[in-house]
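Teaching assistant here, posting this on the class forum so everyone can see the example we discussed in section. The complex has two components, and the goal was to see what a joint structure prediction looks like when all of them are supplied at once.
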Amino acid sequence: MTGIITLKIAMRALIRNKARSLLTALGIIIGIAAVIAVVAVGQGASVTMRSQINSMGNNLLLIFPGSQKTGGFHGGAGTQQTLTAEDGEAILRECPFVQAMTPLVRTGAQCIYRENDWGTSVQGVDVSYQEVRGWDVASGSFFTDSDVRSASRVCVIGKTVAEQLFQGEDPVNQSIRIKNMPFRVMGVMTSKGSAAWGQDQDDTIIAPWTTVRRVLQNSAFNNVNQLMFSLVSMDILPQAKEEISQILRQRHRLNVSTDNDFTLTDMTEVTKMITQVSSLMTMLLTIIASISLVVGGIGIMNIMLVAVSERTREIGLRLAIGARRRDILMQFLAEAVALSGAGGLMGIALGVSVANIIARINHWPVMVSPGAVLIALTFSAGVGIFFGFYPAWRAARLNPIESLRRE
Amino acid sequence: MLISLRQICKVYHMEEVDVPALQEVSTDIAAGEFVAIMGHSGSGKSTLLNLLGCLDRPDSGTYLLDGHEVDRLDSDALAGIRNRKIGFVFQNFNLLPRTTALENVELPLYYGAKLSSAERHERARALLIRLGLKDRLGHHPGQLSGGQQQRVAIARALVNQPPLILADEPTGNLDSRSADDIMALFQELNREGITIVMVTHEPDIARFAKRVIQMKDGKIV
Protein backbone atom coordinates (compact mmCIF):
# COMPACT_ATOMS: atom_id res chain seq x y z
CA MET A 1 0.00 0.00 0.00
CA THR A 2 1.27 3.48 -0.78
CA GLY A 3 1.57 6.14 1.89
CA ILE A 4 -1.18 8.31 0.45
CA ILE A 5 -3.71 5.46 0.38
CA THR A 6 -2.75 4.45 3.93
CA LEU A 7 -3.29 8.02 5.11
CA LYS A 8 -6.58 8.25 3.22
CA ILE A 9 -7.84 5.05 4.85
CA ALA A 10 -6.71 6.37 8.22
CA MET A 11 -8.58 9.64 7.72
CA ARG A 12 -11.71 7.67 6.77
CA ALA A 13 -11.46 5.62 9.96
CA LEU A 14 -11.13 8.81 12.01
CA ILE A 15 -14.08 10.48 10.30
CA ARG A 16 -16.18 7.42 11.18
CA ASN A 17 -15.69 8.38 14.85
CA LYS A 18 -15.85 12.17 14.53
CA ALA A 19 -16.62 13.10 18.13
CA ARG A 20 -14.11 10.70 19.57
CA SER A 21 -11.38 11.77 17.16
CA LEU A 22 -11.96 15.45 17.93
CA LEU A 23 -11.89 14.90 21.68
CA THR A 24 -8.73 12.83 21.38
CA ALA A 25 -7.05 15.47 19.24
CA LEU A 26 -8.08 18.21 21.68
CA GLY A 27 -5.00 17.67 23.84
CA ILE A 28 -2.75 18.18 20.80
CA ILE A 29 -4.86 21.11 19.57
CA ILE A 30 -4.49 22.93 22.89
CA GLY A 31 -0.82 22.07 23.23
CA ILE A 32 0.11 23.26 19.74
CA ALA A 33 -2.12 26.33 20.00
CA ALA A 34 -0.40 27.22 23.27
CA VAL A 35 3.08 26.82 21.76
CA ILE A 36 2.22 28.90 18.69
CA ALA A 37 0.47 31.62 20.66
CA VAL A 38 3.14 31.83 23.35
CA VAL A 39 6.01 32.04 20.88
CA ALA A 40 4.16 34.55 18.71
CA VAL A 41 3.17 36.75 21.62
CA GLY A 42 6.60 36.54 23.20
CA GLN A 43 8.36 37.50 19.98
CA GLY A 44 5.84 40.25 19.26
CA ALA A 45 6.32 41.69 22.73
CA SER A 46 10.10 41.65 22.61
CA VAL A 47 10.18 43.11 19.09
CA THR A 48 7.86 45.87 20.26
CA MET A 49 9.97 46.62 23.31
CA ARG A 50 13.16 46.59 21.30
CA SER A 51 11.73 48.93 18.69
CA GLN A 52 10.55 51.23 21.46
CA ILE A 53 14.04 51.29 22.88
CA ASN A 54 15.48 51.92 19.44
CA SER A 55 13.02 54.78 19.04
CA MET A 56 14.80 56.49 21.92
CA GLY A 57 17.67 57.29 19.59
CA ASN A 58 20.72 56.06 17.72
CA ASN A 59 23.37 54.37 19.92
CA LEU A 60 22.15 56.53 22.74
CA LEU A 61 24.22 57.49 25.78
CA LEU A 62 22.72 59.81 28.36
CA ILE A 63 24.44 61.87 31.07
CA PHE A 64 22.47 63.20 34.01
CA PRO A 65 23.78 65.49 36.71
CA GLY A 66 24.75 63.42 39.74
CA SER A 67 23.45 63.44 43.27
CA GLN A 68 24.50 66.10 45.73
CA LYS A 69 26.37 65.14 48.86
CA THR A 70 26.52 67.67 51.63
CA GLY A 71 27.84 66.32 54.90
CA GLY A 72 25.76 63.23 55.66
CA PHE A 73 22.92 64.20 53.35
CA HIS A 74 22.76 62.37 50.03
CA GLY A 75 20.30 63.79 47.51
CA GLY A 76 18.86 61.92 44.52
CA ALA A 77 20.17 61.93 40.95
CA GLY A 78 19.82 65.30 39.25
CA THR A 79 19.92 67.32 42.47
CA GLN A 80 23.22 68.85 41.42
CA GLN A 81 23.32 71.58 38.87
CA THR A 82 26.81 70.83 37.62
CA LEU A 83 26.18 69.58 34.08
CA THR A 84 26.43 72.30 31.46
CA ALA A 85 26.09 72.60 27.73
CA GLU A 86 29.80 73.40 27.62
CA ASP A 87 30.53 69.99 29.15
CA GLY A 88 28.69 68.43 26.24
CA GLU A 89 30.58 70.49 23.65
CA ALA A 90 33.88 69.58 25.26
CA ILE A 91 33.05 65.89 25.15
CA LEU A 92 31.94 66.16 21.52
CA ARG A 93 35.26 67.83 20.72
CA GLU A 94 37.55 65.56 22.68
CA CYS A 95 36.00 62.11 22.55
CA PRO A 96 36.29 60.45 19.11
CA PHE A 97 33.55 57.92 19.93
CA VAL A 98 30.87 60.59 20.08
CA GLN A 99 29.13 61.34 16.82
CA ALA A 100 26.57 63.92 17.90
CA MET A 101 25.51 65.67 21.07
CA THR A 102 22.65 67.77 22.29
CA PRO A 103 21.97 69.29 25.67
CA LEU A 104 18.44 68.91 26.94
CA VAL A 105 16.52 71.25 29.20
CA ARG A 106 13.04 70.30 30.20
CA THR A 107 10.16 72.34 31.42
CA GLY A 108 6.42 72.08 31.47
CA ALA A 109 4.24 74.75 29.92
CA GLN A 110 0.70 75.60 28.95
CA CYS A 111 0.41 76.33 25.21
CA ILE A 112 -2.32 78.24 23.49
CA TYR A 113 -3.36 78.56 19.87
CA ARG A 114 -6.48 80.73 19.49
CA GLU A 115 -9.10 79.16 21.74
CA ASN A 116 -7.28 75.80 22.11
CA ASP A 117 -4.89 75.18 24.94
CA TRP A 118 -2.82 72.15 25.91
CA GLY A 119 -0.41 71.48 28.75
CA THR A 120 2.72 69.68 27.60
CA SER A 121 6.44 69.38 28.13
CA VAL A 122 8.86 71.67 26.37
CA GLN A 123 12.26 70.24 25.52
CA GLY A 124 15.09 72.63 24.89
CA VAL A 125 17.66 71.05 22.59
CA ASP A 126 20.29 71.72 19.98
CA VAL A 127 19.89 71.20 16.24
CA SER A 128 21.68 67.82 16.43
CA TYR A 129 18.78 66.51 18.51
CA GLN A 130 17.35 65.25 15.21
CA GLU A 131 20.42 63.12 14.61
CA VAL A 132 20.81 61.91 18.19
CA ARG A 133 17.23 60.72 18.44
CA GLY A 134 16.86 59.72 14.82
CA TRP A 135 13.79 61.90 14.57
CA ASP A 136 12.86 63.87 11.46
CA VAL A 137 10.56 66.73 10.65
CA ALA A 138 7.37 65.65 8.89
CA SER A 139 6.39 69.06 7.59
CA GLY A 140 8.05 72.49 7.74
CA SER A 141 11.61 72.53 9.04
CA PHE A 142 13.67 72.23 12.21
CA PHE A 143 15.11 75.35 13.81
CA THR A 144 18.68 76.29 12.89
CA ASP A 145 22.00 76.90 14.65
CA SER A 146 21.46 80.63 14.49
CA ASP A 147 18.08 80.16 16.20
CA VAL A 148 19.95 78.40 19.01
CA ARG A 149 22.65 81.07 19.18
CA SER A 150 20.16 83.92 19.30
CA ALA A 151 17.63 82.12 21.52
CA SER A 152 14.86 82.79 18.99
CA ARG A 153 11.26 82.15 19.93
CA VAL A 154 10.74 79.32 17.50
CA CYS A 155 9.74 75.69 18.02
CA VAL A 156 8.78 72.45 16.33
CA ILE A 157 5.92 70.44 17.74
CA GLY A 158 5.10 66.75 18.16
CA LYS A 159 2.16 65.16 16.37
CA THR A 160 -0.01 64.97 19.48
CA VAL A 161 0.48 68.66 20.23
CA ALA A 162 -0.28 69.50 16.59
CA GLU A 163 -3.53 67.57 16.81
CA GLN A 164 -4.55 69.07 20.12
CA LEU A 165 -3.77 72.70 19.31
CA PHE A 166 -4.47 72.92 15.60
CA GLN A 167 -7.10 70.25 15.10
CA GLY A 168 -6.49 69.70 11.43
CA GLU A 169 -5.11 73.15 10.54
CA ASP A 170 -1.55 73.39 9.20
CA PRO A 171 0.60 74.47 12.16
CA VAL A 172 3.64 75.50 10.09
CA ASN A 173 4.42 79.23 10.44
CA GLN A 174 1.55 79.76 12.87
CA SER A 175 2.17 81.48 16.13
CA ILE A 176 1.41 79.78 19.43
CA ARG A 177 1.75 81.11 22.96
CA ILE A 178 3.94 79.20 25.38
CA LYS A 179 3.75 80.56 28.92
CA ASN A 180 2.05 83.55 27.30
CA MET A 181 4.99 84.30 25.01
CA PRO A 182 4.57 84.03 21.25
CA PHE A 183 6.54 81.29 19.47
CA ARG A 184 6.61 80.58 15.75
CA VAL A 185 5.97 76.93 14.84
CA MET A 186 8.58 75.98 12.26
CA GLY A 187 7.62 72.36 11.76
CA VAL A 188 5.88 69.22 12.93
CA MET A 189 7.86 66.12 13.87
CA THR A 190 7.10 62.64 12.54
CA SER A 191 5.26 60.34 14.92
CA LYS A 192 7.46 58.35 17.32
CA GLY A 193 4.70 56.53 19.17
CA SER A 194 4.88 55.57 22.80
CA ALA A 195 8.13 54.88 24.63
CA ALA A 196 8.97 51.59 26.35
CA TRP A 197 7.39 52.87 29.58
CA GLY A 198 4.21 53.97 27.78
CA GLN A 199 4.83 57.71 27.60
CA ASP A 200 3.58 59.43 24.44
CA GLN A 201 6.76 60.73 22.79
CA ASP A 202 4.76 62.87 20.37
CA ASP A 203 3.24 64.94 23.17
CA THR A 204 6.04 67.48 23.29
CA ILE A 205 7.27 70.83 22.02
CA ILE A 206 10.88 71.14 20.92
CA ALA A 207 12.60 74.53 21.09
CA PRO A 208 16.21 75.75 21.11
CA TRP A 209 17.66 75.01 24.55
CA THR A 210 18.91 78.58 24.86
CA THR A 211 15.38 79.86 24.35
CA VAL A 212 13.97 77.50 26.96
CA ARG A 213 16.71 78.44 29.42
CA ARG A 214 16.67 82.23 28.88
CA VAL A 215 13.06 82.92 27.92
CA LEU A 216 10.93 80.23 29.55
CA GLN A 217 13.07 79.56 32.63
CA ASN A 218 14.43 83.10 32.80
CA SER A 219 17.94 81.91 33.71
CA ALA A 220 21.35 83.12 32.62
CA PHE A 221 23.13 79.84 33.48
CA ASN A 222 23.95 77.11 31.03
CA ASN A 223 23.35 74.11 33.27
CA VAL A 224 21.11 71.48 31.70
CA ASN A 225 18.91 68.53 32.77
CA GLN A 226 20.64 66.08 30.54
CA LEU A 227 23.24 65.61 27.82
CA MET A 228 22.36 63.21 25.02
CA PHE A 229 25.04 61.59 22.90
CA SER A 230 24.93 59.50 19.81
CA LEU A 231 27.91 57.12 19.76
CA VAL A 232 29.67 55.94 16.61
CA SER A 233 28.77 52.37 17.50
CA MET A 234 27.48 50.37 20.45
CA ASP A 235 30.60 48.13 20.36
CA ILE A 236 32.84 50.83 21.83
CA LEU A 237 30.35 51.65 24.60
CA PRO A 238 32.64 50.70 27.54
CA GLN A 239 35.59 52.73 26.18
CA ALA A 240 33.32 55.67 25.38
CA LYS A 241 31.88 55.66 28.90
CA GLU A 242 35.35 55.53 30.41
CA GLU A 243 36.68 58.37 28.27
CA ILE A 244 33.63 60.59 28.79
CA SER A 245 33.87 60.04 32.54
CA GLN A 246 37.50 61.12 32.50
CA ILE A 247 36.75 64.27 30.50
CA LEU A 248 33.91 65.23 32.83
CA ARG A 249 35.89 64.52 36.01
CA GLN A 250 38.68 66.76 34.72
CA ARG A 251 36.30 69.54 33.79
CA HIS A 252 34.52 69.33 37.14
CA ARG A 253 37.90 69.16 38.94
CA LEU A 254 36.99 66.09 40.96
CA ASN A 255 39.84 64.55 42.91
CA VAL A 256 40.43 60.81 43.10
CA SER A 257 38.46 60.28 46.29
CA THR A 258 35.35 62.10 45.09
CA ASP A 259 32.41 60.30 43.47
CA ASN A 260 31.25 61.26 40.00
CA ASP A 261 28.84 64.21 40.08
CA PHE A 262 27.08 62.81 37.01
CA THR A 263 25.50 59.53 35.90
CA LEU A 264 26.00 57.76 32.57
CA THR A 265 23.05 55.75 31.30
CA ASP A 266 22.69 53.65 28.16
CA MET A 267 20.00 51.37 26.83
CA THR A 268 21.96 48.11 26.59
CA GLU A 269 21.15 47.12 30.17
CA VAL A 270 17.44 47.67 29.58
CA THR A 271 17.54 45.81 26.26
CA LYS A 272 19.41 42.92 27.82
CA MET A 273 16.96 42.70 30.70
CA ILE A 274 13.92 42.77 28.44
CA THR A 275 15.41 40.09 26.20
CA GLN A 276 16.23 37.92 29.19
CA VAL A 277 12.81 38.27 30.76
CA SER A 278 10.96 37.61 27.52
CA SER A 279 13.07 34.57 26.60
CA LEU A 280 12.63 33.19 30.12
CA MET A 281 8.86 33.60 29.88
CA THR A 282 8.81 32.02 26.43
CA MET A 283 10.83 29.07 27.71
CA LEU A 284 8.61 28.60 30.76
CA LEU A 285 5.40 28.71 28.76
CA THR A 286 6.88 26.43 26.11
CA ILE A 287 7.64 23.86 28.79
CA ILE A 288 4.05 24.05 30.02
CA ALA A 289 2.80 23.72 26.44
CA SER A 290 5.08 20.72 25.87
CA ILE A 291 3.62 19.02 28.92
CA SER A 292 0.16 19.46 27.46
CA LEU A 293 1.47 17.94 24.20
CA VAL A 294 2.71 14.90 26.08
CA VAL A 295 -0.64 14.60 27.85
CA GLY A 296 -2.33 14.87 24.45
CA GLY A 297 -0.04 12.14 23.16
CA ILE A 298 -0.99 9.84 26.02
CA GLY A 299 -4.64 10.51 25.14
CA ILE A 300 -3.93 9.40 21.59
CA MET A 301 -2.17 6.26 22.81
CA ASN A 302 -5.12 5.47 25.06
CA ILE A 303 -7.71 5.87 22.34
CA MET A 304 -5.61 3.93 19.84
CA LEU A 305 -5.35 1.03 22.29
CA VAL A 306 -9.14 1.12 22.60
CA ALA A 307 -9.43 1.18 18.80
CA VAL A 308 -7.12 -1.80 18.43
CA SER A 309 -9.14 -3.89 20.87
CA GLU A 310 -12.45 -2.76 19.34
CA ARG A 311 -11.27 -3.59 15.86
CA THR A 312 -9.54 -6.88 16.58
CA ARG A 313 -11.88 -8.68 14.15
CA GLU A 314 -11.11 -6.13 11.47
CA ILE A 315 -7.39 -6.69 12.02
CA GLY A 316 -7.87 -10.45 11.81
CA LEU A 317 -9.82 -10.07 8.59
CA ARG A 318 -7.23 -7.76 7.04
CA LEU A 319 -4.50 -10.28 7.90
CA ALA A 320 -6.60 -13.07 6.36
CA ILE A 321 -7.13 -11.25 3.08
CA GLY A 322 -3.43 -10.54 2.65
CA ALA A 323 -2.33 -7.66 4.85
CA ARG A 324 1.23 -8.07 6.07
CA ARG A 325 2.08 -7.24 9.67
CA ARG A 326 3.73 -4.00 8.61
CA ASP A 327 0.58 -3.01 6.70
CA ILE A 328 -1.38 -3.28 9.95
CA LEU A 329 1.36 -1.42 11.82
CA MET A 330 1.35 1.36 9.22
CA GLN A 331 -2.44 1.56 9.23
CA PHE A 332 -2.69 2.21 12.95
CA LEU A 333 0.40 4.38 12.99
CA ALA A 334 -1.13 6.43 10.18
CA GLU A 335 -4.31 6.84 12.19
CA ALA A 336 -2.36 8.09 15.19
CA VAL A 337 -0.32 10.46 13.03
CA ALA A 338 -3.40 11.67 11.16
CA LEU A 339 -5.05 12.30 14.51
CA SER A 340 -2.13 14.25 15.93
CA GLY A 341 -1.34 15.92 12.61
CA ALA A 342 -4.91 17.15 12.18
CA GLY A 343 -4.80 18.22 15.81
CA GLY A 344 -1.57 20.07 15.05
CA LEU A 345 -3.11 21.88 12.07
CA MET A 346 -6.16 22.89 14.08
CA GLY A 347 -3.88 23.91 16.93
CA ILE A 348 -1.85 26.12 14.60
CA ALA A 349 -5.04 27.78 13.36
CA LEU A 350 -6.25 28.29 16.93
CA GLY A 351 -2.85 29.51 18.11
CA VAL A 352 -2.53 32.01 15.27
CA SER A 353 -5.99 33.43 16.02
CA VAL A 354 -5.24 33.68 19.73
CA ALA A 355 -1.90 35.38 18.97
CA ASN A 356 -3.71 37.80 16.66
CA ILE A 357 -6.26 38.67 19.32
CA ILE A 358 -3.62 39.22 22.00
CA ALA A 359 -1.48 41.23 19.59
CA ARG A 360 -4.44 43.40 18.66
CA ILE A 361 -5.31 44.09 22.29
CA ASN A 362 -1.74 45.08 23.09
CA HIS A 363 -0.98 46.79 19.75
CA TRP A 364 1.91 44.45 19.06
CA PRO A 365 2.96 43.15 15.69
CA VAL A 366 1.89 39.54 15.09
CA MET A 367 5.01 37.40 14.98
CA VAL A 368 3.89 33.94 13.86
CA SER A 369 7.15 32.67 12.46
CA PRO A 370 6.98 29.96 9.77
CA GLY A 371 9.70 28.18 11.74
CA ALA A 372 7.46 27.86 14.79
CA VAL A 373 4.62 26.54 12.62
CA LEU A 374 6.92 23.99 10.99
CA ILE A 375 8.30 22.87 14.34
CA ALA A 376 4.77 22.58 15.75
CA LEU A 377 3.66 20.46 12.82
CA THR A 378 6.71 18.21 12.99
CA PHE A 379 6.32 17.93 16.73
CA SER A 380 2.66 16.96 16.56
CA ALA A 381 3.37 14.34 13.90
CA GLY A 382 6.23 13.12 16.09
CA VAL A 383 3.86 12.83 19.05
CA GLY A 384 1.58 10.72 16.86
CA ILE A 385 4.41 8.40 15.83
CA PHE A 386 5.80 8.13 19.36
CA PHE A 387 2.53 7.49 21.16
CA GLY A 388 0.89 5.64 18.28
CA PHE A 389 3.67 3.12 17.91
CA TYR A 390 2.86 0.92 20.87
CA PRO A 391 -0.85 0.45 19.98
CA ALA A 392 0.06 -0.12 16.33
CA TRP A 393 2.69 -2.67 17.32
CA ARG A 394 0.11 -4.46 19.47
CA ALA A 395 -2.27 -4.52 16.49
CA ALA A 396 0.37 -5.90 14.15
CA ARG A 397 1.25 -8.69 16.59
CA LEU A 398 -2.30 -10.07 16.79
CA ASN A 399 -2.92 -13.66 15.78
CA PRO A 400 -5.30 -13.71 12.81
CA ILE A 401 -7.13 -16.89 13.83
CA GLU A 402 -7.88 -15.71 17.36
CA SER A 403 -8.71 -12.20 16.14
CA LEU A 404 -11.26 -13.54 13.66
CA ARG A 405 -12.92 -15.58 16.37
CA ARG A 406 -13.28 -12.58 18.69
CA GLU A 407 -16.80 -11.26 19.13
CA MET B 1 -2.97 -31.01 -7.60
CA LEU B 2 -3.98 -27.65 -6.18
CA ILE B 3 -3.57 -28.82 -2.59
CA SER B 4 -1.32 -31.58 -1.38
CA LEU B 5 -0.98 -32.36 2.36
CA ARG B 6 1.58 -34.90 3.63
CA GLN B 7 1.71 -36.08 7.26
CA ILE B 8 0.52 -32.80 8.68
CA CYS B 9 0.68 -32.64 12.49
CA LYS B 10 -0.51 -29.81 14.67
CA VAL B 11 -0.52 -29.74 18.48
CA TYR B 12 -2.04 -27.00 20.63
CA HIS B 13 -0.32 -26.34 23.92
CA MET B 14 -2.91 -25.42 26.50
CA GLU B 15 -1.81 -24.97 30.11
CA GLU B 16 0.61 -27.88 30.39
CA VAL B 17 -1.68 -30.14 28.38
CA ASP B 18 -0.87 -30.85 24.75
CA VAL B 19 -4.00 -31.15 22.62
CA PRO B 20 -3.27 -32.86 19.32
CA ALA B 21 -5.48 -31.15 16.72
CA LEU B 22 -4.21 -32.86 13.58
CA GLN B 23 -2.43 -36.19 13.47
CA GLU B 24 -0.57 -37.10 10.31
CA VAL B 25 -3.19 -35.80 7.93
CA SER B 26 -2.49 -36.49 4.28
CA THR B 27 -4.84 -35.67 1.45
CA ASP B 28 -4.96 -34.16 -2.04
CA ILE B 29 -7.48 -31.77 -3.51
CA ALA B 30 -7.41 -31.25 -7.25
CA ALA B 31 -8.17 -27.99 -9.01
CA GLY B 32 -11.89 -27.68 -9.70
CA GLU B 33 -13.04 -29.78 -6.78
CA PHE B 34 -15.81 -28.80 -4.37
CA VAL B 35 -14.97 -30.41 -1.02
CA ALA B 36 -16.91 -30.34 2.23
CA ILE B 37 -15.00 -31.06 5.44
CA MET B 38 -17.33 -32.49 8.07
CA GLY B 39 -16.89 -33.53 11.65
CA HIS B 40 -17.89 -32.77 15.20
CA SER B 41 -16.48 -29.80 17.05
CA GLY B 42 -12.97 -30.65 18.16
CA SER B 43 -12.46 -33.03 15.27
CA GLY B 44 -9.76 -30.74 13.84
CA LYS B 45 -11.70 -29.45 10.83
CA SER B 46 -11.20 -25.77 11.74
CA THR B 47 -7.50 -26.36 12.36
CA LEU B 48 -7.26 -28.01 8.97
CA LEU B 49 -9.02 -25.07 7.32
CA ASN B 50 -6.70 -22.57 9.03
CA LEU B 51 -3.69 -24.52 7.77
CA LEU B 52 -5.14 -24.69 4.26
CA GLY B 53 -5.72 -20.92 4.46
CA CYS B 54 -2.08 -20.27 5.44
CA LEU B 55 -3.28 -18.58 8.62
CA ASP B 56 -1.38 -21.14 10.64
CA ARG B 57 1.66 -23.37 10.09
CA PRO B 58 1.87 -27.10 10.76
CA ASP B 59 4.26 -28.43 13.42
CA SER B 60 5.43 -31.03 10.92
CA GLY B 61 4.55 -32.32 7.47
CA THR B 62 4.47 -30.57 4.13
CA TYR B 63 1.79 -28.49 2.43
CA LEU B 64 1.98 -27.80 -1.28
CA LEU B 65 -0.43 -25.15 -2.51
CA ASP B 66 -0.47 -24.63 -6.27
CA GLY B 67 3.06 -25.98 -6.38
CA HIS B 68 4.47 -23.79 -3.58
CA GLU B 69 5.78 -25.39 -0.42
CA VAL B 70 3.96 -22.95 1.81
CA ASP B 71 4.90 -24.48 5.18
CA ARG B 72 8.39 -23.06 4.67
CA LEU B 73 7.38 -19.49 3.84
CA ASP B 74 7.70 -16.48 6.18
CA SER B 75 4.68 -14.53 7.32
CA ASP B 76 4.96 -11.82 4.64
CA ALA B 77 5.10 -14.42 1.89
CA LEU B 78 2.11 -16.20 3.43
CA ALA B 79 0.20 -12.91 3.42
CA GLY B 80 0.93 -12.66 -0.29
CA ILE B 81 -0.32 -16.22 -0.86
CA ARG B 82 -3.52 -15.50 1.08
CA ASN B 83 -4.04 -12.37 -0.94
CA ARG B 84 -3.56 -13.90 -4.40
CA LYS B 85 -4.46 -17.58 -4.10
CA ILE B 86 -7.17 -17.79 -1.46
CA GLY B 87 -10.56 -16.22 -0.87
CA PHE B 88 -12.05 -16.52 2.62
CA VAL B 89 -15.74 -16.78 3.43
CA PHE B 90 -16.72 -16.75 7.11
CA GLN B 91 -19.77 -17.77 9.10
CA ASN B 92 -20.19 -14.27 10.52
CA PHE B 93 -19.28 -12.57 7.20
CA ASN B 94 -16.59 -10.33 8.81
CA LEU B 95 -17.53 -7.27 6.81
CA LEU B 96 -16.18 -3.94 8.06
CA PRO B 97 -19.00 -2.06 9.78
CA ARG B 98 -19.98 1.41 8.58
CA THR B 99 -18.18 0.71 5.32
CA THR B 100 -20.02 0.35 2.03
CA ALA B 101 -20.40 -2.97 0.23
CA LEU B 102 -18.21 -1.60 -2.56
CA GLU B 103 -15.41 -0.61 -0.18
CA ASN B 104 -15.61 -3.95 1.60
CA VAL B 105 -15.14 -5.78 -1.69
CA GLU B 106 -12.24 -3.52 -2.67
CA LEU B 107 -10.35 -4.28 0.54
CA PRO B 108 -8.12 -7.17 -0.71
CA LEU B 109 -7.05 -5.06 -3.69
CA TYR B 110 -5.26 -2.60 -1.40
CA TYR B 111 -2.85 -5.30 -0.27
CA GLY B 112 -2.06 -6.96 -3.57
CA ALA B 113 -1.85 -5.84 -7.17
CA LYS B 114 -1.12 -2.22 -7.87
CA LEU B 115 -4.38 -0.92 -9.25
CA SER B 116 -5.66 2.59 -9.69
CA SER B 117 -8.66 3.50 -7.60
CA ALA B 118 -10.80 3.53 -10.75
CA GLU B 119 -9.74 -0.05 -11.55
CA ARG B 120 -10.46 -1.11 -7.98
CA HIS B 121 -13.94 0.40 -8.12
CA GLU B 122 -14.66 -1.17 -11.48
CA ARG B 123 -13.60 -4.67 -10.42
CA ALA B 124 -15.58 -4.56 -7.18
CA ARG B 125 -18.61 -3.07 -8.89
CA ALA B 126 -18.64 -5.71 -11.64
CA LEU B 127 -18.50 -8.51 -9.09
CA LEU B 128 -21.26 -7.12 -6.91
CA ILE B 129 -23.47 -6.62 -9.95
CA ARG B 130 -22.77 -10.21 -11.00
CA LEU B 131 -23.79 -11.45 -7.56
CA GLY B 132 -27.08 -9.58 -7.81
CA LEU B 133 -26.25 -6.63 -5.55
CA LYS B 134 -26.50 -3.90 -8.16
CA ASP B 135 -28.74 -1.77 -5.93
CA ARG B 136 -26.71 -2.33 -2.78
CA LEU B 137 -23.26 -0.97 -3.77
CA GLY B 138 -23.41 1.95 -1.35
CA HIS B 139 -25.13 0.13 1.50
CA HIS B 140 -23.44 -0.59 4.80
CA PRO B 141 -23.50 -4.17 6.14
CA GLY B 142 -26.08 -3.13 8.75
CA GLN B 143 -28.47 -2.24 5.94
CA LEU B 144 -28.18 -5.65 4.26
CA SER B 145 -29.82 -9.01 4.98
CA GLY B 146 -27.68 -11.96 6.04
CA GLY B 147 -27.79 -13.50 2.56
CA GLN B 148 -26.80 -10.18 0.99
CA GLN B 149 -23.97 -9.73 3.47
CA GLN B 150 -22.62 -13.17 2.64
CA ARG B 151 -22.80 -12.31 -1.06
CA VAL B 152 -20.72 -9.18 -0.39
CA ALA B 153 -18.25 -11.37 1.51
CA ILE B 154 -18.08 -13.80 -1.41
CA ALA B 155 -17.50 -10.92 -3.81
CA ARG B 156 -14.64 -9.83 -1.55
CA ALA B 157 -13.23 -13.39 -1.65
CA LEU B 158 -13.39 -13.37 -5.46
CA VAL B 159 -12.07 -9.91 -6.18
CA ASN B 160 -8.43 -10.99 -6.55
CA GLN B 161 -9.50 -13.94 -8.77
CA PRO B 162 -8.01 -16.66 -6.54
CA PRO B 163 -8.06 -20.33 -7.60
CA LEU B 164 -9.24 -21.43 -4.14
CA ILE B 165 -12.12 -20.43 -1.87
CA LEU B 166 -12.12 -21.50 1.76
CA ALA B 167 -15.47 -21.27 3.52
CA ASP B 168 -15.96 -21.77 7.26
CA GLU B 169 -19.60 -22.64 7.97
CA PRO B 170 -20.70 -20.17 5.28
CA THR B 171 -24.41 -20.82 5.90
CA GLY B 172 -24.25 -21.04 9.70
CA ASN B 173 -25.87 -17.62 10.20
CA LEU B 174 -28.36 -17.84 7.35
CA ASP B 175 -31.95 -19.04 7.02
CA SER B 176 -32.39 -22.11 4.83
CA ARG B 177 -33.49 -20.21 1.71
CA SER B 178 -30.48 -17.88 1.79
CA ALA B 179 -28.31 -20.90 2.59
CA ASP B 180 -29.54 -22.69 -0.54
CA ASP B 181 -28.90 -19.53 -2.59
CA ILE B 182 -25.34 -19.29 -1.32
CA MET B 183 -24.75 -22.99 -2.05
CA ALA B 184 -26.11 -22.55 -5.54
CA LEU B 185 -23.73 -19.66 -6.01
CA PHE B 186 -20.84 -21.84 -4.80
CA GLN B 187 -21.80 -24.54 -7.27
CA GLU B 188 -21.91 -21.98 -10.07
CA LEU B 189 -18.46 -20.65 -9.13
CA ASN B 190 -17.18 -24.21 -8.92
CA ARG B 191 -18.48 -24.92 -12.44
CA GLU B 192 -16.40 -21.97 -13.64
CA GLY B 193 -13.31 -23.72 -12.29
CA ILE B 194 -12.83 -22.30 -8.80
CA THR B 195 -11.87 -24.86 -6.18
CA ILE B 196 -13.99 -24.67 -3.04
CA VAL B 197 -13.19 -26.18 0.33
CA MET B 198 -15.95 -25.72 2.88
CA VAL B 199 -16.21 -26.66 6.54
CA THR B 200 -19.70 -27.50 7.71
CA HIS B 201 -21.43 -29.72 10.22
CA GLU B 202 -24.76 -29.77 8.36
CA PRO B 203 -25.22 -32.78 6.08
CA ASP B 204 -27.80 -30.81 4.04
CA ILE B 205 -25.15 -28.28 3.16
CA ALA B 206 -22.41 -30.85 2.62
CA ARG B 207 -24.64 -32.45 -0.03
CA PHE B 208 -23.90 -29.54 -2.37
CA ALA B 209 -20.23 -30.52 -2.45
CA LYS B 210 -18.82 -33.11 -4.86
CA ARG B 211 -16.72 -34.77 -2.19
CA VAL B 212 -16.94 -34.98 1.58
CA ILE B 213 -13.96 -35.38 3.91
CA GLN B 214 -15.01 -36.73 7.31
CA MET B 215 -12.78 -35.87 10.25
CA LYS B 216 -12.61 -37.38 13.68
CA ASP B 217 -10.06 -36.83 16.49
CA GLY B 218 -7.64 -35.01 14.21
CA LYS B 219 -7.66 -37.63 11.49
CA ILE B 220 -9.39 -38.04 8.15
CA VAL B 221 -11.73 -41.01 8.35
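For the discussion questions: The interface with chain B takes residues 1, 5, 9, 16, 313-314, 316-327, 400-401, 404 of chain A (CB under 8 Å). The longest strand of chain A covers residues 98-113. Think about how each of these relates to the inputs above.
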